[in-house]
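Objective 1b: paired records.
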Amino acid sequence: MQTDYYVVLGIPYNASPEEIRSAYYGFARSMHPDVNPDPSVREAFLLVKQAYEILSNPKKKAEYDAAFPADLRKGPAISVGVKYSQTALHLMDEPQLAYALIDLVCTADSAASSLSPCHVCLVIDKSTSMQGQRMDMVKASSLNLLQQLRSQDLLSVVAFSDRAEVLISPSRASSLSKSDHRISLLQTGGGTEILQGLALGMEQLRSSDSNFTRQLFLLTDGHTYGDEEGCIQLAREAADEGISINVLGIGFEWNDVLMDQIAALSGGNALFVSTPRDLDNFLMQKLSEMESVYARGVRFEFESLSNVQIRYAFRLAPNVAPLDINSPVFFGDLQHRKSISVLLEFVVQPLSGEMEQLTLSSGKLWMEIPGMSVPKTRVLLDLHLAVKKGVEPEAPPAVLLEAMAKLTLYRLQEKVRQEVNEGQVEKATRHMHYLATHLLSQGDRELAHTVLIEAEHIQQSRRFSGEGEKRIKYGTRALLLTPGKEL
């Protein structure tokens, strides 16, 4: 059988000349005989060199490609659609905003034979503040999750306070008791050092190979102190290794800003848990998504442009979450017959001179598709709009207009948080009443009532209450949620 040189270089079958060259030089830096005299490595590098010599030569590449069956050259079963807030930008000397709604849709049906096994790692905060109902809730939900795992799935459990320990090392679900005593007998005590728990949890996930869809679930009710930068760095490492970190904040005292950042950097989610039902529903939903993954670790790598900046990025489906705006932006995992929807907000600097089109962003969607001979693949994604003088006002597409309106409410609560922190109580209170009015107009009476009560609390105490702040933040975020699309 003919050697697959694309597999040798680890590149997509539709790789560009630049990608072919980049892959070769990447191998050369570590495998060339001048830097690595190991005889076994030398033999492997000769194959890499041969692959490059064939694929970098247009004529030889065409002859080589013609020898392969067409079905081996099929790209990923993914379609990409983009809706813009307008058909054209204004040629003007002031900054302007533009929005793009990206829908990444998987058109492949799932089959049991094509689904990857999962490795779920629970990292449980067992500090003193978790005692009582909080720990009872976590134990019950953890045991319920264990009962839902498939026989081929792996579960590991780490508990931490001011130190971390492995309760359950990576084990097949079929070998675990449905009421595992190691979870049932977990005791609370000590402080909260989240980095220790995350680091030990990552060790468990790293022990399983890349065939597994791997996700870490951090369950905590408190702040960590002094190790925040370490947590952020670990989230970046997790993303690079295809591991998502999901944070379930229990109660009202946890650091939502840090936890949002950890989740965003790794393509995961952060959730405010106020009831056992919240916890059970989230864990079951994430497990269902993990069991039907088509493409893992979807990320958007793009070039930064001098006259355009991404100011906001929000994933609307399958789970709503703010995303980090620096390249690469991690979108998360894509399920069979489902979609990932992401809303991007661009700030366009003043436009002048002769210009017919402006590129908002130029890049690639990279992902790993288990089961493909070259699992790492990419889809090109260029976002651009026409530029015209004297553009007439136009309404955005309905789906985008609705998302933009809801994003405005979420951004408003962010603004209020900032105003409270700066001591601008009157301005913050006025914006809270404005937010409540709009929530009422949308029929969300419960959240509007919460906002009004919190506005009074801010007026009297000049600060948010722990409960009100999180209910409003995650309540307005939930407004952005759009159901995953069935095909």
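Objective 1b, second protein:
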Amino acid sequence: MKYKVVLEQAEEGGYTAYVPVLKGCVSEGDTVDEALDNIKIAITEFLEALEEVNKGKRVVEVEVAA
């Protein structure tokens, strides 16, 4: 699955990466590549945590036409 990631250069150096559709999914890195590697890990962990939070709840998928 692909997610749009926003990269911003941090004032103190390095980069911050976040995923707008996954509120609170944020990571950092000293370089763009490191920030992107770190946000991939953060996305995986975010989705795992979300799955755990929703365990036992009725979850359905919907398709939205672009």
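The two ends are 16 Å apart (CA to CA). The helical segments are 32-53.
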